[in-house]
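Run: sequence + beta-D-fructofuranose -> complex structure.
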Amino acid sequence: NEWTRELRYQPYDSWHTDYTQQLKNTVKKAPWRLDYHVQPNTGLLNDPNGFSYFNNKWHLFYQYYPFGPVHGLKSWYHLTSDNLIDWVNEGVAIEPTNQFDSHGVYSGTALPIDDSLFLAYSGNVRDENWQRKSYQLGAKMSKEGHMQKLEHPLIDFPIKGYTDHVRDPQIIPYEEGYLMILGAQDTNEKGQVILFQSENLTNWEFIGNLDYADEEMGFMVECPNLLFIEEKPLLIFCPQGLNKNVLPYDNIYPNTYILGSDFDLKTVTIKDATPLQQLDYGFDVYATQAFTNNNNRHLSVSWVGLPEVDYPSFKDGWAHCLSLVKELTIRNGKLHQFPIAETKELRQDKQLIEGTLSSENQILTQPKNNSYELNLSFDANSSGVIHLMRDESLDKSFKLTFDTKLGKLIVDRGQVGVPFAEAFGTTRELELTKYSSLELDIFVDQSIIEIFVNKGSEVITSRVFPNSNQTNLKIEGQGGSYFGTMYSLRKMK
Ligand code: FRU
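>> structure
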């Protein structure tokens, strides 16, 4: 069937249970379903929302369209966890119901306030001419899980100086009150990050455009996150239509960050900001959400999927997943992202891997299936290829080519199962420090590969859709030796 606008915006309760049951069955039988990543039961998942710790549990929500692998009428789907690894599906938590969010409960964040979890999100509304209106809204979730939308918008539409593209509120405690950080498009059609301030979460005062870069940030900024790590401001965001002279990138839209030395609210400035950098060097990361919990842990999770790109799983009625939960730290003045220590809970049997790089090298330990963790270290003078998801007879694989002398790392997903998004290229390249040893922590889960380079100094995330016989592992190369460990990983409980 064709996903007309009418169909995509049909109310949830108008879908027949025969249809939804059939969709569930199709997805249950689908290949490429993940073992330990958050994925939708049916339909489409996009941005992580409301990542928080409240009432002795971790809470995570995501943008959800239940009825097919398309961007339709969005709601927030709710998950809870005791350990940030095993997530319990709690169902749809915020649905579009009223004049402020009738055409989508869009992205936002959550903050525990007194006895409830305060949720801030964008309400997407279309009028009869399909003209957009965008409200910034609030809701409160009680300890028992009861959700109550606030009666009045936190921020009304329109905002002077900006178009109808204003969304994705992040609320953070700041001094005695709160800041709201929003992605926006100004009336000159430039992407901006804008700030509001409030003492009580009810009345919000406009502060202005955040000054964090000399360059223009395309035509729109989505999903901004402002964090303070060791008092240094970190801004993670998604500029759309960014000029490739500002930052070379191949994905349709990049997820990026800058790190500053100081934040000044009076001048609305992040001082001494680094040049814009890619948050992820792979093919699929977008809309990363990060927050600081009350133990001062900085955690993030990304949508692994991109807007306006088709993925092979669409044919089975589901789309996209979330990344592993990552811990953010600053080391040697640089942002590092690494899977949280709790990820070790997934480990099953351990096997040591050791060898000398040569052209015949065949790794002796073969993974049982595409669900494992592989930690590898290479000498400063080595080069080679790690083949993941290799097909024994045809030698097709996901290739990770490295050369520590030249300081290069290239990933190639062009030879894995069902090709997709080829218009954006099938390889990605990362520059490394020349003549340095290389450490890789690789997480493989059926249709996703997350590669953490040098303990999270860089991350390379890729969706891949292998054929069923692509489960082998091979390492080949020259110069020096390698050693490491491989763990098979269990399924999410
Ligand atoms: C980013 C985004 C957000 C929006 C949401 C809608 O992927 O476009 O800007 O709030 O998705 O699902």
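>> summary
The chain has two domains: 5-339, 347-489. Residues 46-47, 63, 74, 106-107, 122, 167-168, 222-223, 286-287, 307 surround beta-D-fructofuranose (CB under 6 Å).
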